[in-house]
From TrEMBL:
<feature type="binding site">
    <location>
        <position position="19"/>
    </location>
    <ligand>
        <name>Mg(2+)</name>
    </ligand>
</feature>
<protein>
    <recommendedName>
        <fullName>Isoprenyl transferase</fullName>
        <ecNumber>2.5.1.-</ecNumber>
    </recommendedName>
</protein>
<dbReference type="GO" id="GO:0016094">
    <property type="term" value="P:polyprenol biosynthetic process"/>
</dbReference>
<feature type="binding site">
    <location>
        <position position="24"/>
    </location>
    <ligand>
        <name>substrate</name>
    </ligand>
</feature>
<comment type="similarity">
    <text>Belongs to the UPP synthase family.</text>
</comment>
<feature type="binding site">
    <location>
        <position position="187"/>
    </location>
    <ligand>
        <name>substrate</name>
    </ligand>
</feature>
<feature type="active site">
    <location>
        <position position="19"/>
    </location>
</feature>
<dbReference type="InterPro" id="IPR018520">
    <property type="entry name" value="UPP_synth-like_CS"/>
</dbReference>
<feature type="binding site">
    <location>
        <begin position="193"/>
        <end position="195"/>
    </location>
    <ligand>
        <name>substrate</name>
    </ligand>
</feature>
<comment type="function">
    <text>Catalyzes the condensation of isopentenyl diphosphate (IPP) with allylic pyrophosphates generating different type of terpenoids.</text>
</comment>
<feature type="binding site">
    <location>
        <position position="68"/>
    </location>
    <ligand>
        <name>substrate</name>
    </ligand>
</feature>
<dbReference type="InterPro" id="IPR036424">
    <property type="entry name" value="UPP_synth-like_sf"/>
</dbReference>
<keyword id="KW-0808">Transferase</keyword>
<feature type="binding site">
    <location>
        <position position="206"/>
    </location>
    <ligand>
        <name>Mg(2+)</name>
    </ligand>
</feature>
<dbReference type="GO" id="GO:0000287">
    <property type="term" value="F:magnesium ion binding"/>
</dbReference>
<feature type="binding site">
    <location>
        <position position="36"/>
    </location>
    <ligand>
        <name>substrate</name>
    </ligand>
</feature>
<keyword id="KW-0479">Metal-binding</keyword>
Amino acid sequence: MKEQIISESLPKHIAVIMDGNGRWAKKKGAARIFGHKNAIKAVRDVTEGCAELGVEYLTLYAFSTENWSRPKVEVNALMELLVSTLVSEMKTLMDNGIRLDTIGDTKSLPEKCQRELAEAMAKTKNNDRMVLVLALSYSGRWDIAQATKAIAKDVAEGKVDAENIDQELINKYLNTSGIPDPELLIRTSGEQRISNFLLWQMAYTEFYITDTLWPDYRKKDLYEAIVSYQNRERRFGMTSEQIKS
């Protein structure tokens, strides 16, 4: 499948909703955290795969604002897993020239997580092969709300003229400022919804949904998603004839 990928038309930015860890663990008669721990291999495989192909940005939906409502024991285990993974995967990031970035309300994370994230981002800041963006304590509605508040504040302080508010200005206030909109969204586990992820940014994103549960997702699955994307006609509101002319 990899040989079918056209390098000249790779998506610059791929976003992934990593779903199915709990169901994967349940199938094996284990607790949900067992699925989360076994999902690390999929994260490593897809991150390496994207970097090897030449994808510039990979955004992983790691923890949503809604995930805080999960059982406390699971949330605590996820936070501990985040810290241990940042430490254990540092070599992978450095070997592959990957810079780590985050979007979301990361100030709501435990202090230890914030500290490890800051250290990981500092260590990888000069890597320029690919940017790995972790969406942590993130949701699309949260991002739009925080951007709206910031714009309203700047309007009140006379820094922004309300008549000049347009899509370009709103983009600058979003947490994803400076990151291109994703061309391809991959969702695992067969669920057909976007779960409050990058709501503004995915206006023209191509969706690829697979029944594969995230812990089983590997490079070959990534290649299939990219080949599917490259066989689509992206019209952005225009006609097919306009695109081909």
